[in-house]
Design a protein that fits this description.
heterodimer; A: five-stranded antiparallel beta sheet; B: 114 residues; mainly beta; seven-stranded mixed beta sheet; four-stranded antiparallel beta sheet
Chain lengths: 112, 114
C-alpha cells in the first residue's frame, strides 16, 4: 500500500506568518488531494493536483505537486485563525478503483 | 446538490454493546468509503464499495466490524461488540468513480465507547 508522510505533524504560528506543510509519497503520485478538517467534523476539500508541476491556489492557500520528488506542498500566506485545523493529504490512487490513502495529518494552530 | 449524509452525529455506548452507522452518499456516486479516524491520526480506510460490491476491506476488523451496501446506494457500518479502542470518528465518503475523482465526505459520526 502507498504510504503518505506529512510534515510537520503539528505547527504553531503567529497570525500573519507564512507556513508550509509537506506530503511525501513512497510511490509515484498520480494525483493528490488536500483536505482541511476541524476535529470531529467532516473533511473540506481544498484542491486536487493531478499533473507533475501543477500548482493551484485558493485565496491564501497554494498547493504544488512535484511528481519527480513524489511530494506535494501546501503553503499558506499570511495565516489567520480561521486557517487553524488539521490538514490532510490524500492520495488519489491512480486507477479507477484506486485505494484512497491519507497522510497522518498536520495540526495547525494560529495564534492571534 | 445534497451532500453525503451520515447519522447519527454522536453516539455513546458501553463496551460490548452493538452500534450501527448509516451513510447516504451523493446521488449517482458509485463508490462509497468508510473511514475510521482516531483522535490525533489521519483517517484509515475500513472498506470501499463500488456499487454494492466490496473493492477493498483489507483493514476492516472483520471479527467485529461489518458493512453492507445492499442496493448500491445507502450503506451501514456495524460494530458488534464494541471495544474501548473503537472510540473514533467514522467518516463516510462517496465519489462518482473511485481513484482520480474528488471524494465528498459526510460530517462523520463520533463514537465514544465507555
Amino acid at each position: 500500500s502507498q504510504e503518505l508522510e506529512q510534515s510537520p505533524q503539528s505547527l504553531i504560528v503567529q497570525e500573519g506568518k507564512n507556513l508550509t506543510i509537506n506530503c511525501t509519497s513512497s510511490k509515484t503520485l498520480y494525483g493528490l488531494y488536500w483536505y482541511k478538517q476541524k476535529y470531529g467534523e467532516g473533511l473540506i476539500f481544498l484542491m486536487m493536483l493531478q499533473k507533475g508541476g501543477e500548482e493551484k491556489s485558493h485565496e491564501k492557500i497554494t498547493a504544488k505537486l512535484d511528481e519527480k520528488k513524489q511530494q506535494s506542498s501546501l503553503h499558506i500566506t499570511a495565516s489567520q485563525p480561521s486557517h487553524a485545523g488539521i490538514y490532510l493529504c490524500f492520495n488519489a490512487g491512480g486507477t479507477s478503483y484506486g485505494k484512497l490513502t491519507f497522510g497522518q495529518g498536520t495540526i495547525l494552530t494560529v495564534h492571534p | 446538490e445534497a451532500g453525503v449524509a451520515q447519522s447519527p452525529r454522536y453516539k455513546i455506548i458501553e463496551k460490548r454493546q452493538s452500534v450501527a452507522f448509516w451513510c447516504n452518499p451523493i446521488s449517482g456516486h458509485a463508490t462509497l468509503y468508510w473511514y475510521q479516524q482516531i483522535l490525533g491520526q489521519g483517517p484509515k480506510l475500513l472498506i470501499q464499495f463500488q456499487n454494492n460490491g466490496v473493492v477493498d476491506d483489507s483493514q476492516l476488523p472483520k471479527d467485529r466490524f461489518s458493512a453492507e451496501r445492499l442496493k448500491g446506494v445507502d450503506s451501514t457500518l456495524k460494530i458488534q461488540p464494541a471495544k474501548l479502542e473503537d472510540s473514533a470518528v467514522y467518516l463516510c465518503a462517496s465519489s462518482f468513480v473511485g481513484g482520480n475523482t474528488e471524494a465528498f465526505f459526510g460530517q462523520g459520526t463520533r463514537l465514544t465507547v465507555v
